[in-house]
Protein 1
Amino acid sequence: MDPILSFVESKLAGQIDFLREMVQLETPSRDEAAIGCFADLLESRVSDIARVKRVKAPGFGPHLVVEFDLGGGKKRGQVLGLAHSDTVHPTGTLARFPFEARGGRLYGPGVLDIKGGIAQFVFAVRALRELGVPVRKKVLLQINSDEEIGSDASRALTEKMAKMSDCVLVVEPGTGLTGKLKTARKGTGDYSVAVKGVASHAGVDFLAGASAIVELAKQIEAIVGFTDLARGLTVNPGVISGGTRSNVVAAEARVEVDIRIARLKDFAALDRKFRKLKAFDKRCVVTVEGGLNRPPMERTKAIGAMFAQARLLASELGVALEESSTGGGSDGNFTAALGVPTLDGLGMVGEGAHTLNECVLIDRIADRTALLAKLLAVS
């Protein structure tokens, strides 16, 4: 058996215990105190192998930069791991969805996205240290506290750290129950389209009104036409609000729109379409706000080469590794857009992220951790 895989398997119980501790500490986005407690927990569990720097992010809790001690003298270059401490699950979720092992799986809020990936990274480093595997480059793990809500507070730090790194390894979950790595992700963005109309009494003075709701309906019909599936571009009006009472011609209405793009070069044309929206009823006023939040992670030759290397290393572990693209974004979108080779989806194998069925496959923890260790050693 591969020596790294053998070592990781011997430490599996400890890795699961660490994962349990993290999951049982609920860390919803914007809970500054909870994420501060998470930082305390992590620092206490890695103090023997790493130094933890806290980067203040008021309102979110600290971002963490974990620099591991891998010995072997001066390092040339840097490998950056990316994860996040926040989850989508509100405080109190544990009461109805506790951490538990059942049917060969571990369940709990955030167990897959992304605390399992953090546990993997820490134990991958422990394997390299204990086995004396030489690591040529400095290894850091950045854990952001606001990834699930757009990474506005952490993006600058992520991009700064990426620019100092030779490559980035993102421990977001793999795709599907085979754990495909992610070599491409769509870019994500949001627009808010608001209409201001003219209010009137719907019975007494109907013609005096200019309905913001009617106008918005026409705008939405135009907006959905921006979708271009052949280019991997989707536009989804997801939330509508407006009006006050059914007997009042609505003075205001608004739609919140999600966009996804596969290629950055397609964004400018899409943005122009939003900015050019004009009212059909000249008595109404249309305003547009928003734009691109995360640029797409496009599959480059460098990313392809990283995946080829990962596939070869996985074969040494008896795993046939595949790649995938996804419509969801991660902090890896930012690093890939800078031209830094980025490999995503290196985290746990499981399903149900962001749901009350979130879980990881226990029998895939060891090989995923071993793969990550091997990548850290050769990157």
Protein 2
Amino acid sequence: MDEYIRVGKTRKTHGIKGGVKLEVEDRFLEDVLKVDVAFLKIQGKHLPFFIEGFDYTNKLIIYFEEIETPEAAVPLTSKDFFIRKKDINEQSTIAFQDSNLQYGKLLDFEIYDQSLGRIGEIEKIMEFPQQEMAQLTYDAREVLIPLNDQLILEIDEKTKKVKMQLPEGLLHL
């Protein structure tokens, strides 16, 4: 069974040929440009999409085989973008593993609030001077959640879930 690494996210459609804007973490860009298949997480599953090509003039645009119109590309927008772990070169893997982030291992974990239930999947972990923050999409907008011992109640590595007690109103800032 293939292991997948989240390397970015699809954004809006682009142009009339079915292109999709692609946001990729810098350390994985070379790897993404070399693969011929990528995986989008749709309804909880990693679905394969064969890559026809890229346009990297201004922004990174990806073209998938058999997706030839903006309408056909719409269902592929705002999705987590994965490649197989075996397709990542050794230097990218080292950078991925040597992250100095205390909570870096929580990437792709799901955050659950004690009161609200499932909040969303951690898309990115960012380091700020005072603390680390998890970036995720909640109610169709990006939110930042502080990662610290005062808010984290439990981390279940087996199920990839982080149980937290979030301050009231944090998700609506």
